[in-house]
Specification:
The structure is a single chain. It contains 13 helices and 17 strands. Helix 2 (73-93) crosses helix 9. The chain is α/β, with parallel strands linked by helices. The relative contact order is 0.17. Residues 1-7 have low confidence and may be disordered.
């Protein structure tokens, strides 16, 4: 990382002050419609730094082979790099063992894996608690199960700031409750949920817990043992790694009791027509040839984040979010959607008399990339009685220059649309 004065945040609130993280991301070194690119869509998919791109290229160019069981040199190299990535993930979230780290295609597949396996011991009438803040990926699998098997879905609501009404959770839990599912951070609003408190309430009633951590791991330190959850799911592409790779953390004692989800290669020890012996953890849940390059890229992304320090990331992004919030609320007619006291890295908003898609299109002409729509969180939009929002989401490469460019673009958009 090289010196820069681009960010005007003070050193007291910006531990990365004097380092131009942006230069580590080649994709940002371009113009969009004749303007400097201000990428403010990291909640959908973050950009990737040069070390991640180089790690993937090195594997593809020198070491590509299938992992496990191969006796030749390239297979050994690929296996070592793949399993090294698992060790990095374990350290990054402070899991107790690599056996608790299962590679998946992403958060969605990780949640579906839990849904398909954990529910096999449930009976009709059992209940699952989700929250009103959830991404569709943490609602739809449970609805599908409920429809198929007669389970019941119960919903923990939010207030008009976008905060969970945690005090209502004990009343939702009963003797038929089997699982509590909640996001660590809302992708639509940026609300940081009190997951440790919620998990403790569930554990006191012998209820399992699943945390969607996709929007948390890029922005703050995560310790799954401190949270004390049973499952924690996240995706590589939200945390500056490749698409198509994700992680399911599962408490080892619980994972040992779950049946395999998919059948195929690498999740078995022996196969005959009289029966199959399944592999040990975590391979029992990793059927088929995995996304080897994706795992290696995810490991490189973790190396990159750890070189910066997740506490530093959290401090800097908190200061930048405050700067952005103060700046955007100066605009007439702009309404922030989601004003939780504890939030991170997301500014969702509407502007009176304008459609979010129109705002997004005009901003693109100014080189500003944001996301518009319901953000796969339609129950959140329903709560606020809106069809969608414009969402600016922050990453480690963003600076006050990006926020100023967003503000200038919105000012121009309002002039055009009003």
């Amino acid at each position: 990382m090289t010196a820069s004065s681009e960010s005007s945040l003070s050193p007291a609130v910006d531990p990365l002050n004097g380092h131009d993280v942006r230069r580590d991301f080649p994709v940002l070194d371009q113009q969009i419609n004749g303007n400097r690119l201000a990428f403010l869509d990291s909640a959908a998919s973050a950009q990737r730094p040069r070390p991640v791109l180089e790690a993937i290229a090195a594997y593809e160019e020198r070491d590509h082979a299938n992992v496990h069981r191969g006796v030749h040199t390239l297979s050994h190299r690929a296996t070592e790099a793949y399993e090294s990535a698992r060790k990095k993930v374990r350290r990054f979230v402070n899991a107790a063992s690599e056996r608790e780290i299962v590679f998946t295609r992403g958060t969605t597949e990780a949640i579906n894996l839990v849904a398909a396996t954990l529910s096999q011991s449930w009976t009709s009438g059992d209940e699952i608690i989700v929250t009103e803040l959830e991404h569709h990926a943490n609602i739809v699998p449970w609805q599908m199960l409920a429809d198929q098997h007669g389970f019941r879905l119960r919903v923990l609501p939010i207030n008009n700031r976008g905060e969970l009404l945690v005090e209502q959770l004990p009343d939702l839990i009963n003797d038929r409750t089997r699982l509590l599912c909640l996001a660590h951070v809302s992708n639509a609003l940026g609300t940081i949920n009190p997951v440790t408190e919620c998990v403790a309430m569930a554990r006191a009633r012998n209820v399992r817990t699943l945390i969607d951590g996709a929007q948390a791991v890029p922005h703050m330190p995560v310790d799954v043992r401190a949270v004390d959850c049973d499952f924690y799911a996240f995706s590589g592409h939200k945390m500056y790694g490749p698409t198509g790779i994700g992680v399911l953390y599962g408490r080892e004692s619980l994972m040992q009791s779950l049946p395999p989800w998919q059948g195929g290669g690498d999740m078995i020890l022996t196969v005959s027509f009289s029966g199959t012996t399944f592999n040990e953890l975590p391979y029992r849940f990793e059927a088929g040839t995995p996304n080897i390059a994706g795992a290696i890229g995810l490991g490189a992304a973790i190396d990159y984040l750890e070189s910066i320090g997740m506490a530093n990331v959290a401090t800097r992004e908190s200061a930048l979010l405050k700067y952005a919030t103060d700046k955007l609320t100066e605009l007439p007619g702009l309404r922030l959607i989601g004003t939780a006291a504890n939030k991170t890295s997301v500014l969702s908003f509407t502007v009176e008399g304008t459609h979010p898609h129109d705002l997004g299109t005009i901003l693109d002409h100014q080189g500003v990339a944001i996301r518009t729509g319901h953000h796969c969180a339609m129950p959140v939009m329903e709560h606020f009685n809106i069809a969608g929002t414009a969402r600016a989401s922050l990453g480690i490469y963003n600076t006050t220059d990006d926020i100023d460019q967003l503000y200038k673009g919105l000012t121009k958009a309002l002039e055009m649309l009003r």
